[in-house]
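Retro notes (design track)

What went well: tokenization of the new backbones is finally stable.
What didn't: we kept losing track of which sequence belonged to which structure.
Fix going forward: every design gets posted as structure first, then sequence, in one message. First example under the new rule, 993 residues:
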């Protein structure tokens, strides 16, 4: 049977188009029940049980469940449990879920794929008896609700005609749809009513969403109301309101910021009324105050450690930020959040806050991420969940509730268990880490894999060239190799050879889609979450020593001064002669007795790399730094047994320079050939306000000289009190950082560079046709154009760039999605998000293993004051590359105040106690230990040892052991000096075992 679907569409010019599509209806779409003899089923179509067992008190007879769209969207966590079986999923519902929530749709498809659940997809939209046409004046939602009721009624009548008397029950949370279903004689109830009727499974109620529950109207509202969507839209249109993404502060739970277009600084929001129930990541509407009401960010580090679950805000009054009318340069645009445009809630990991009421079902959930507020949930299994990591989802945040309301999703495992904590880490940073599906694995090449004659015919054979790779120790995903040889004309040929991953991953298949979703390989301390299956990442694509591999080669002809004379690109076949670590390569370069081909190649590469680096720095490229450390992991327990700062060698820089050069050369090529759709990477120049902490830190270095003689000496030696950091251009900043050196503090320059790194903007992927040419610039590298080409095993952006470059040289063809700016821009958004989350996950893994390392251990180390806060000193420990906080005011322990008094100087950013003054970058000695009293947030505790302050500092362990009196000592110099920092994460592969 054939019917027509009619659509009306308005064009850009205002014309109305009438679109008529043929819609086929069939009578051979079957019900899917095992006992039905009326339908001529194939055996594989009989999914629903012959005699379904009822577990419900509401419907104690055999029945199948038919789900409404809102029931699936709101209660997917319930349906993921295997308690509910024999379910009919209508095509109407599946299609609605797909368009309303991609995350829920993915989960729902996984539920449907579980054959033990007996879930049948009924294509009601093409069944002759269940298809309904949209009526005049009927909304799409009302039409779909009617289609669901018609299909449920058909099922119920169809099944009643059999001897088994199996019924169909509709689950819906839509009150109007439920009312109409009852009027039409359909068995119907809400998802909550049905779940509560399953007496054998009371804990399933914990997973019910509270989105549609009525709020307690008798409670007093403690938050301002949110504006309606119409009011928000009109306010933004009139310029009264602005929109942006809300970012909660980790250091002060009563503070956050919103990035608003047109404002150089983030717009500050403070206090509960100002935050107004926004959760980190939400897109919000904000009203910006007049300039006279702008304030400065709070200098207080404040965390919500209150254990009172009541909605009492009195105790917070003393911590609310105060308006600072002083120096206008310190103040930021300030406003208040008046509405939520789009929630970005997800599932959160954490623990239950202990509740001392026996048998209580209402509990407070404490998220592991400090930027997320506590959440109220109901659970009947609090005793079992005690000391367990659990997952909770937010459902709503009423005005009368201090915290949002949510529901329990699932338990992860024991608190403190390393596997559990790693799972938390990955979930909290939204890292896809499930096993690759069978569909994805089906697109891998079959073993044994061999190179065919056709492969050789379409590639340049470079197997006779002395190519080698240089990587971190233990690296198995080797994606780049190098060569350098002298040509007959006296010039040098330099080649960068990159794993040809795009040969194995073809556009649009399941393997490609999974790699695009994951976007990047995530490196944790003791494991690696691959972007592509191991067969590719560690085998067929990895450029291992003495194995033939496919590569994409970028080859230059250069003179001895590293001037590029000619560049060419081609797909190639290579055989790496040796896979080396940075240390092994450095030893070969330094050993003059070694004169073989690899040694000669490495020395020439090293010589050229130094020239390239010098030239980049002269052009304004920045050499920044970040505190990075490396753990030695026990092979059996996988616990950290030693930790040290990463060592940087010349070979690190050598590889980095040629990777940078290849990325620039490829960027120029693909942008020239595809000016509208090249995938590039830019690093925006930071606004000058970002540099204020760095400039102040440099200037304040002269102010810690306590007498006129030393101040005069500083003026003679350094030209003034402190260092003037020029930030107007990248080149001036680089020169200023080079000149800021203190002979009495060898780590001072590195700390300045760490601080400079934190002033930077995030580098991002973008599509050339969506951005003006001047904005292509990469600030950190001082490169007019840049992309990522050199790591396709671990970055999906590089795969796209490989496909573009292959099309440029005729080695492969394009495809529609590759040249679609809208789709590739959306892809860039995912790549930027996943890369950011991967960085955060890596840092969190370092923090976790640092805690494991210090468990049961106390150690004294030398450090430096990195920031001086109003109530704390933030200290950097170079040996471990970590930061910690020494609180100098506020609460200590169970509300006890410090006996000593610190005075904070807001102008000079100092803390003074007696005659001891703390400035940024001052050396200190601290004692490190792990505080395990808060099981949710175990934290590394820093206690001041030197300089010694009576009543505040702790005595040195050696002094305690000898019980000798201690004079006030001079601060010690650091034991080791770390150098480094790399530009734009060019080569950041980590050791994995």
């Amino acid at each position: 049977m054939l019917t027509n679907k009619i659509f009306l569409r308005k064009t850009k010019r205002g014309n109305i188009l009438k679109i008529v599509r043929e819609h086929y209806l069939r009578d051979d779409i079957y019900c899917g029940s095992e006992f039905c003899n009326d339908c001529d089923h194939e055996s594989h179509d009989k999914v629903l049980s012959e005699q379904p067992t009822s577990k419900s008190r509401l419907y104690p007879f055999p029945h199948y469940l038919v789900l409404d769209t809102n029931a699936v969207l709101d209660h997917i966590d319930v349906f993921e449990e295997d308690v509910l079986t024999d379910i009919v999923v209508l095509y109407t519902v599946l299609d609605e879920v797909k368009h309303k929530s991609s995350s829920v749709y993915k989960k729902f498809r996984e539920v449907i794929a579980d054959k033990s659940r007996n879930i049948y997809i009924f294509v009601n939209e093409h069944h002759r008896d269940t298809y309904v046409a949209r009526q005049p004046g009927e909304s799409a939602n009302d039409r779909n609700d009617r289609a669901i009721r018609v299909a449920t009624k058909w099922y119920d009548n169809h099944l009643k005609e059999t001897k088994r008397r199996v019924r169909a029950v509709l689950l819906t949370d839509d009150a109007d749809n439920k009312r109409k279903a009852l009027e039409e004689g359909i068995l119907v109830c809400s998802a909550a009513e049905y779940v509560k009727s399953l007496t054998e499974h009371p804990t399933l109620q914990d997973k019910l969403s509270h989105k549609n529950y009525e709020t307690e109207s008798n409670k007093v509202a403690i938050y301002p109301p949110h504006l309606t969507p119409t009011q928000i839209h009109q306010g933004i249109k009139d310029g009264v309101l602005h929109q942006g993404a809300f970012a909660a502060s980790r250091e002060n739970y009563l503070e956050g910021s919103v990035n608003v277009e047109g404002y150089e600084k983030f717009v500050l929001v403070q206090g509960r009324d100002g935050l107004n129930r926004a959760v980190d990541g939400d897109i919000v509407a904000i009203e910006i105050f007049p300039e006279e009401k702008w304030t400065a960010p709070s200098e207080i580090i404040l965390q919500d450690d209150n254990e009172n679950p009541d909605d009492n805000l009195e105790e917070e009054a003393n911590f609310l930020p105060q308006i600072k009318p002083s120096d206008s340069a310190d103040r930021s645009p300030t406003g208040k959040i008046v509405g939520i445009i789009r929630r970005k809630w997800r599932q959160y990991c954490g623990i239950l806050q202990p509740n001392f009421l026996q048998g209580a079902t209402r509990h407070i959930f404490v998220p592991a991420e400090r930027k997320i507020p506590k959440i109220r949930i109901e659970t009947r299994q609090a005793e079992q969940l005690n000391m367990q990591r659990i997952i909770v989802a937010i459902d709503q945040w009423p005005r009368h509730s201090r915290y949002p309301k949510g529901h329990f999703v699932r338990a992860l495992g024991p608190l403190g268990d390393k596997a559990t904590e790693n799972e938390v880490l990955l979930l909290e940073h939204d890292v896809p880490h499930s096993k690759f599906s069978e569909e994805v694995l089906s697109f891998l090449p079959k073993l044994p894999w061999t190179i065919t004659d056709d492969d050789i015919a379409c590639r340049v054979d470079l197997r006779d060239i002395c190519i080698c790779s240089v990587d971190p120790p233990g690296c198995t995903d080797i994606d780049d190799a190098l060569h350098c040889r002298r040509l007959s004309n006296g010039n040098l040929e330099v080649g960068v050879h990159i794993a040809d991953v795009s040969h194995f991953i073809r556009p649009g298949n399941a393997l490609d889609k999974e790699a695009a979703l994951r976007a990047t390989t995530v490196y944790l301390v003791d494991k690696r979450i691959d972007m592509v299956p191991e067969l590719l990442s560690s085998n067929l694509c990895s450029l291992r020593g003495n194995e033939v591999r496919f590569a994409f080669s970028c080859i230059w002809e250069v003179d001895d001064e590293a001037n590029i004379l000619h560049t060419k690109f081609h797909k190639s076949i290579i055989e790496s002669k040796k896979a080396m670590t940075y240390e092994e390569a450095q030893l070969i370069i330094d050993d003059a007795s070694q004169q073989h081909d690899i040694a000669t190649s490495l020395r020439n590469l090293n010589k050229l790399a130094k020239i390239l680096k010098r030239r980049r720095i002269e052009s304004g490229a920045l050499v920044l730094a970040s505190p990075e450390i490396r753990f030695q992991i026990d092979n059996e327990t996988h616990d950290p047994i030693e930790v040290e700062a990463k060592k940087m060698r010349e070979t690190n820089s050598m590889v980095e320079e040629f990777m940078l050069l290849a990325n620039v050369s490829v960027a120029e090529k693909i942008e020239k050939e595809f000016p509208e759709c090249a995938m590039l990477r830019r690093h925006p120049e930071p606004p000058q306000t970002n540099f204020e902490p760095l400039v102040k830190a440099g200037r304040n270095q002269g102010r810690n000289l306590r007498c006129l003689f030393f101040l005069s000496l500083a003026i003679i030696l350094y030209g003034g009190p402190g260092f003037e950091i020029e930030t107007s251009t990248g080149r001036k900043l680089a020169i200023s950082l080079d000149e800021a050196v203190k002979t009495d503090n060898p780590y001072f320059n590195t700390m300045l560079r760490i601080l400079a790194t934190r002033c930077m903007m995030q580098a991002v992927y973008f599509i050339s046709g969506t951005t003006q040419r001047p904005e292509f610039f990469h600030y950190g590298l001082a490169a007019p154009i840049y992309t990522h080409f050199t790591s396709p095993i671990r970055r999906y952006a590089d795969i796209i760039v490989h496909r573009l470059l292959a099309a440029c040289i005729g080695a492969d063809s394009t495809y529609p999605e590759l040249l679609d700016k809208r789709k590739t821009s959306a892809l860039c958004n995912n790549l930027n998000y996943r890369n950011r989350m991967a960085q955060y996950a890596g840092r969190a893994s370092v923090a976790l293993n640092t805690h494991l390392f210090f468990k049961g251990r106390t150690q004294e180390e030398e450090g430096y004051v990195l920031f001086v806060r109003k109530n704390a000193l933030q200290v950097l420990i170079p040996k471990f590359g970590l930061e910690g906080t020494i609180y100098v005011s506020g609460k200590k322990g169970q509300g006890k105040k410090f006996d000593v008094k610190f005075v904070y100087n807001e102008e000079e950013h100092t803390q003074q106690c007696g005659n001891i003054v703390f400035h940024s970058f001052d050396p200190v000695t601290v004692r490190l230990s792990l505080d395990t009293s808060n099981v949710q947030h175990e934290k590394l505790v820093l206690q001041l040892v030197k300089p010694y302050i009576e009543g505040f500092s702790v005595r040195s362990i050696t002094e305690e052991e000898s019980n000798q009196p201690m004079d006030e000592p001079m601060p010690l110099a650091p034991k080791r000096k770390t150098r480094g920092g790399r530009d734009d994460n060019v080569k950041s592969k980590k050791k994995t075992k």
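Added context from the reviewer: The longest strand covers residues 564-575.
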